[in-house]
Amino acid sequence: MIRYALGRLTSLVISLIVASIVIFAVIEVIPGDPAAFMLGINARPDTIAALRAEMGLDQPLITRYLDWITGMLRGDFGQSWTYKTPVAELIADRIWVSLPLAIFALTLSTLVAFPAGIYAASRRGGAGDVTIMGATQLGVAIPNFWFAMILVLIFAINLRWFSAGGFPGWDNPLQAIKSLTLPAIALALPQAAILARVMRSSLLDMLGEDFIRTARAKGLSARQALWRHAVRNALIPVLTIIGLQFSFLLAGGIIIEQVFFLPGLGRLIFQSISARDLIVVESVVMLLVFTVIMVNFIVDLAYAAVDPRLRTKS
Amino acid sequence: MSLLAIKDLSLSIGNTRILHKVGLDIQAGEIVAITGESGSGKSMTAMAVMGLLPRGSVAKGEIMLNGTDILQTTESDLCTMRGNMMGIVFQEPMTALNPVQTIGAQVAETILIHEKTTKANAHKRAAAMLERVGLSVPPSRYPHELSGGQRQRVVIAMAIALRPKLLIADEPTTALDVTTQARILDLLRDLVREFDMGLLLITHDLAVVADVADKIAVMQNGCVVESGATKHLFAHMQHPYTKALFAASAHTVSLPETPASSPILQVRNVARDYPISRKAFLGPRPKFRALHDISFQINAGERVGLVGESGCGKSTLTRAILGLEDVQEGQITLDGDPVFSDKRPNLAVRRKMQVVFQDPFSSFNPRHRVDRLITEPFHLLPSPPTGQARANAIAKALTDVGLSPADAGKYIHEFSGGQRQRIAIARALIIAPELIIFDEAVSALDVSVRAQVLDLIADLCRKRPLAYLFISHDLSVVRTVTDRVMVMQAGKIVEQGETETVFTQPQHPYTQTLIAAAPKLPDLGQRG
Q1: How do residues B355-408 score in pLDDT, each as one tens digit?
Q2: Given an 8 Å threshold on Cβ–Cβ distance, is A218 in contact with B158?
Q3: Which residues on chain A are in Cβ contact (under 8 Å) with B142?
Q4: Is residue A254 part of a domain?
Q5: For residue A9, what are the domain limits?
Q6: Number of domains chain B is built from
Q7: How many CA atoms lie within 13 A of B438 on its CB side?
Q8: What confidence tens digit (pLDDT) does each residue in B124-179 have?
C-alpha cells in the first residue's frame, strides 16, 4: 500500500512539473510579447517596456520559470495587472466560494446518483429502471444554465425561499450555504444524471460476473448479492467519474457563477481573460491543474482502498 | 428414496427448447456425471437444480431434492436451501471469487447467512474448512494472490462449508492443469465419502468421467440419450451419439512419414527475462527468468509437440519464436535468419511462419469478411497477389481446410467454433509458411469438432510437407499429432524425444507425473 501510494505520489509530482512547464510555455513562449498583448494594440512602447520590466520579461526564460515556480511555492503568485492586488489574495477570496460550491454540488450529485443507479440496476428493465433512465437522459440533455434560471424563477422569484444571486460571505454560514444551494443544485443535476448512469451500468456489469453467481449459489438473495458483492466492485469506474466531475465542478462553474452572480474562480478567470491579465490566468490555471491532479491522486488512493489487487501489485 | 430425482424436466427460454424430458437420480454418497458437448444442456440442468435459472426460462417437470420439489419452491425458501442443502462449484475459479474480499470472509459468509452464529465462530469454521480442502494459505488472503487450483479449493470450501447433501460441480477442473485436476478430483471424491454427499459432476471430458463417476448420463441437444453405471455404459454403449462421443475422445490420426530433411527453426540456448516489480522504492528492478537455456530445432516437415502446465513458459517461448519479443540470451533463427532483428520482428522470417491461436471466438475482427481475414498475412509479402490471383489463393486456402470458396464473403459470426478454427488455419496456410505454430489450437473445441480439426491437420500434412510446433496441455492430442515432443517445466525443457518413446518410457520425474495425472479413457478392447 505504501509503495503504491509512493508510486502515485511520484507520478503526481511529475505531472505537476510537466503541467507547469506547459502552462508557462503557452503563456510566455508562444509568439508575441505578453506585455504588448496585455496592453492591447494601442499601447505606447514605453508602457510596454515598463510592463515588461515589471513582469520580468527581460530575464532569461529559465530564470523566469524558476521565479514563477518558487514564487508559487511560497504563496506569491505575483501582482494582478488589472486589479493591482496580489493574485494570491484574488484567488483566496474566490476559492472560498468555488471550493464549497464544488463540494456541495458533488455531494448532492453523489447522494442522488448512488441510490438512483443502484435502484435502477436492481430492477433492470422494470418500470423504476425505465423511469430513472428516462430522467437521467433528460438530466444530461438539459443545459445547466437553463435549469439554473428555472430554479431562480421558481424558488427565488415565486416562492422567495432563496435569493436570486450574490454571495454574502462566510460571516453568516447559514446564509452562505443558502446562497450556494440553488447553484449547487443546478451544477449537480447533469453530474448526478451521468453518475447514476455510470453507477447503473457498472453495477449491471458486476451483476453479470461469475462471483455474483457464486454468491447466489451460497444462498444470498439477489438483493444481498448486489449489496455485499456487486456495489463495492462497481465503485471503481464510478470513482473515476467522480474525480473527473470534481475537477469540472471547480473550474466549470463559470456559467452558473454568472447566472447566480457568485464571485468564484470561474468568474475570475473569465474576467482575467477578457482583461488580458495573463498573470492571473496563468496562476488560476496552474491552481486548477494542481487541484485536478490532487483529486486524481486521491481517487487513485481510493481505488486501492476499494481494490486489494492494487495494494499488493505495483 | 433418491437424494435427487429429476423427472421429465423440460426447459425453454422463449421459443428455444433447452432441455427436454431430462431424468436423473442421485443417491447419497454417489457420484453421477453428466457429459456431452457444449450446448447439450448440462449446465442448465445444474442451474435448474440450484433454482438459479436465467430470467425468462420456463421449466416443467419435477426436481425432487430430499423430498422438496425445487421447481415448486419459492425464491426465499430456495435462498435458505442454496449453500445449505445444495452447493455448487463452477468451472472458472479465476472469476468465481469476489476480488475485493478475503477468501476467509467469503467462506464464512456461507455460514453467516444460514446460521445464527458469531462472526468469530464463522471465521474459525471457515478456516477449518479451508484447511480441510487442502489449502495451505491463511484465510486473510485475497483471491488474486492464489493460483487457479487454490482458488478452486476455496470455491469448494465455500460450497461445502455447511455440509450440503448435494454438491454440484460444473466442469470443476476444465480450467486447471492436469496435475491440479487430479488433486481436485481426489479431493471431491474424498469429500463425497466423508460427508456422504451426492455429487453431480458435469464435464465434457469422458476420461474424467470414466475415472471418477459411479453413474453417467450422456446428454445431447437437451435430452439424456443414454445413462447407466459407468462401467456398464462404457462396455455396452447403445446410442450412436455415445459411441461417436467416445470415438471422438479417443480419436487418433495417422501422420505421414516425416521426410528426411534439414533443420529450419533453430533455437539455441535461449533465455528470456521479464522485469518484475521493485522490492524497494526506486530500487533496481529484479528479473524473472521465464525461459532457461532453451535449445531445440525443428526440421522441415517435422511435427513437434510442446507440453507443460500453465506458467511453464510455453507462451513466452511462442512469442520469442514469432519474434514478437527479443530474448536476453541465445538465438532463434529460421533458415539461418534471426527472427528478431533491429528491435522488431524480422518480416523476411515472419512470412515463413504463421500461428493459430486457441480461441476461435476472439481471434478474428468481427467487422471483416472472411476473405479479408484470411488474407491478412499477405501484408508480409513484398508483392501480395491481387485480382484473380488473390481470389484463387483465397479459394484454395478455404478449400484446403474443408470450407467452400463462397464462404469468403461471409462474416465470422456466421461460423461455428470448429469452422472458425478452420478459417484460422486457412489464414495461416495462405502464404504457404514453412512453419505453423498451433498454440492450444484445439483446446477450446468440443471433442467431435476437435477430432475433425485433427484430421484436417493430418490431411494437410499428407498434401504437402508441413512443419509445426503443436503447443497443448492435452497430452492425448499431442501424442497423436506429433512426431517428437518436448516437455517444459518452470522455463526449462526437461525432456524431449520421439513422441511415442516419451509417452511410453518417460525418463524425467515431471514427465512421469504429468502422464500419470492425465485421466485416461477406459480401454474397451473392441470399439462399437
Answers
A1: 998 877 788 888 999 999 999 899 888 888 888 999 999 999 999 888 999 999
A2: yes
A3: 308-309, 312
A4: yes
A5: 2-74
A6: 1
A7: 31
A8: 999 999 998 988 889 999 998 888 889 999 999 999 999 999 999 999 988 888 88
